[in-house]
Amino acid sequence: MASKRRVSYFYPPDVGHFYYGPSHPMKPHRLKLAHHLVLSYGLYREMDCYRPHPATPQEMKAFHSDDYVNFLSKINPDNLRQYSGQMQKFNAGEYTDCPVFDGLYEFTQLYTGASIDGAIRLNNDDADIAINWSGGLHHAKKSEASGFCYINDIVLAILELLKVHARVLYIDIDVHHGDGVEEAFYCTDRVMTFSLHKYGDFFPGTGHIKDTGAKDGTGYSVNAPLTSGMTDATYEEIFKPVMAKIMEIYRPGAIVLQCGADSLTGDRLGCFNLSLKGHAECVKYTKSFGVPTLVLGGGGYTIRNVARCWAYETSVLLDKDISNDIPYNDYFEYYGPDFKLHLTPEQRENQNTEASLDSVRSELLQQLQGLQGAPSVQMQEVPPPFDLQKEKAAEGQNDGGAGDDVRSDRGQTKDGGDRKVHEAEFYDATD
What we know:
The chain is α/β, with parallel strands linked by helices. It has 11 helices and 8 strands.
């Protein structure tokens, strides 16, 4: 776009302090590394930066079941025995990939609140792009933790966007399939999901190219199943033509882009071979359509590379060139021995053949061509957002101003209504 895009950045300061436990690959500490790179590169000066609100249980229950949210709010490492039955039911605890750790519920509140705040800011047209690198936990289900994810902030943010936008596009460039988001919107045409992922003997095992949706959502789940060794060039050959077709056919009012960094080269759990530039090319191309976009984090388990990736993608969203030399910051030693921003892909075989990629691309384009254009939504009243503004008569709003601490007429409230009189109390006469 010709005009500069307004970017809002959401960072909960405490989100990087949580610890999943020894030997667990998910490290929230990576969020602190990424944030400090954003600071040391001076990118924060180009954005509106916010401390988001912690999500409330009511906000979480817009998607998740009551008993699951209540369970998360009560469980902690000291009372595990009390909840052994529920832990099995909700797939959390010692023998799962979703451990119960100190501050678990607070952690979910922080990253979820940031995503909801970003969606609200886009809905209010206060920003063109909203960034929350702590979000993007795409595996969580309605009543179940999964794949290091407890609350699905993406689904909650999309539900918020749907209050204003008729159609929302969800894009997932994490190495794992975005199963939790796809499942949530599998039967509706108001959300299209587009996921590029490793498929075959790989978590979560979903995302076959034939999984295209059901009922009203038939054709609106778009899955690109890939295998190990994806390079920048081959990834782009799938992403750009399919994305262009989606924008032509579906015409979304808003986009949610999950930028899982485990698709980068050298990831501890991933098996793709993308450089930062290849990964960020998807971000750049998505941005080029000029649609309001919520940009989220996701997977990523070699934490120094996760920080590199999200700092670089912040610069791409801001149209700012940044140096390949990592600036000095509190976590500078993490980036040794070269202290450079960009990564060199490994010398390894790309198991995705030209024929296999061509087959995936042509099948997805055919699927999209079969859709009957962009679905419409019947006009109706827009539901209120989770209001973050103070009430008009908020406590302390008029402190020191005219009319501060003025008593109302006896027998009436400040708004002129009749004051309730209790039969067991005595009042002075009002006439």
